[in-house]
Design brief:
The complex is a heterodimer. By secondary structure, chain A is mainly α. Chain A is built from eight helices and two strands, in the order H-H-H-H-H-H-H-E-E-H. The radius of gyration of chain A is 18 Å and the shape is globular. In chain B, helix 3 packs across helix 4, helix 7 runs antiparallel to helix 8 and helix 8 crosses helix 9. Chain B is globular. The chains are: A mainly alpha, B mainly alpha. At the A-B interface, helix 2, helix 4 and helix 8 of A face helix 2, helix 4, helix 7 and helix 9 of B.
């Protein structure tokens, strides 16, 4: 069971590259690696605590209203993250903008609450949340690294490409997000095929 | 009046919800396979977005701001949108069965469409007045529909193309969306800042 959670969350059932969930933050905030890391951490936090509460309440919540209850739980933790970022990291909060509150409708979180946390005991639900969050995190960082390196020649703000490199501005603009993600998904398909 | 036209044009074409803010990507990728389903989805979104934008404006300015409860905004917005979709669904089912048939399964799916919540958040962040909020909600929905229809048209043609195996499915759709986003960038000169 535990091995399967790891394998699915990080590779075979990867939230971004396999299930294409949570596309909105994935494409929007990955202009720089720093933004990608902050969004990844925010999602891990929300996913962890929502799974905790959902798993604890799994025998209490009536079946008919479960989606509404999960949404309110998620919205509560997102509000906490948003207020925390605004107070302590105003610059990151500004860079991520409306995409922090939009974590509420990130299908990964609701999907994990519904498909896993509401059916499994606390320890497994927490592990699944961390692993799925980790899968989302590495997906964001990969996408953001490609876009930052090609678009600005930097990574985390440090220049790594020679000055003769001509940045491909399109990579940090919206179309670049679609193009890079499409290519990455194709590469993942190719890797899967070799296996 | 001039402001309203500016909001309309810039929301539909220049700052398109799907192609520049990446809102509503899930239905955009999921429903754009066939033109007929794209039309149903598009009109449901226009409908719900216009309503959601106006009602969220009323609740935000008349209740949350007055009672100093702004920190509850996200929870309230998502609840308003979810219940609004429910009400719209019941209303349409009762009074226009033919429209209900046409929109069918797309109405409940809209609750999880991040474009609706995004629209509410942007509308509040930009301090629009009521009329502007209504126009903003309508044009955001229209922009979503326009892109969805264009994409559905392209994808129907794409079925007859020979796509390399690893690019079939999601990758080619994403790359098509990227090229579409590049085309839409051409509109950015339409309004002088």
């Amino acid at each position: 069971m535990i091995g399967r959670i790891f394998k699915e969350g990080l590779w075979t059932n990867h939230p971004i590259f396999r299930q294409l969930l949570g596309m909105c933050p994935t494409l929007a905030v990955t202009t720089t690696v720093l933004n990608g890391i902050s969004m990844g951490l925010a999602v891990i936090f929300v996913l962890f605590f929502s799974s905790l509460v959902v798993s604890l309440l799994r025998k209490v919540v009536p079946h008919q209203v479960r989606i509404a209850v999960y949404t309110i739980i998620i919205a509560t933790f997102v509000t906490i993250v948003d207020i925390f970022l605004k107070a302590n990291f105003p610059q990151i909060s500004k860079a991520l903008g409306p995409y922090v509150p939009l974590i509420i409708v990130n299908c990964i979180i609701l999907g994990r609450c519904e498909a896993f946390a509401s059916k499994n005991r606390l320890s497994l639900a927490l592990l699944d949340a961390l692993v799925m969050g980790g899968g989302f995190f590495w997906g964001l960082v990969t996408l953001a690294s490609v876009r930052e390196i090609l678009g600005q020649g930097t990574i985390l703000g440090y220049k790594i490409l020679p000055p003769s490199f001509n940045p491909l501005i399109v990579m940090v603009l919206p179309p670049g997000a679609f193009l890079v993600l499409g290519t990455l998904v194709a590469i993942m398909n190719r890797l899967e095929r070799i296996k | 009046m001039k402001e309203l036209v500016l909001i309309f044009i810039s929301t539909v074409l220049i700052n398109n919800f799907v192609l520049t803010y990446f809102l509503g990507i899930c239905p955009f990728l999921g429903v754009s396979g066939r033109l007929s389903s794209a039309i149903g989805m598009g009109f449901s979104v226009i409908f719900v977005m216009t309503f959601a934008s106006s009602i969220v404006w009323l609740i935000y300015h008349l209740i949350l701001v007055k009672l100093n409860l702004v920190f509850l905004e996200y929870i309230v917005f998502i609840l308003v949108i979810a219940s609004l979709v429910q009400i719209v669904e019941m209303f349409v089912r009762k009074y226009s069965p033919s429209l209900y048939q046409a929109l069918g399964i797309y109405l409940p799916l809209i609750t999880t469409n991040c474009a609706i919540l995004g629209c509410a958040l942007f509308m509040v962040a930009r301090n629009y007045n009521f009329l502007e909020a209504v126009v903003y909600g309508f044009s955001a929905g229209l922009g979503f529909t326009v892109v969805l229809l264009v994409m559905a048209g392209i994808r129907e043609d794409l079925n007859y193309c020979e796509v390399p195996k690893v690019f079939r499915g999601a990758p080619i759709t994403l790359i098509t969306a990227g090229l579409l986003a590049l085309c839409f960038m051409g509109f950015s000169g339409l309004i002088r800042a």
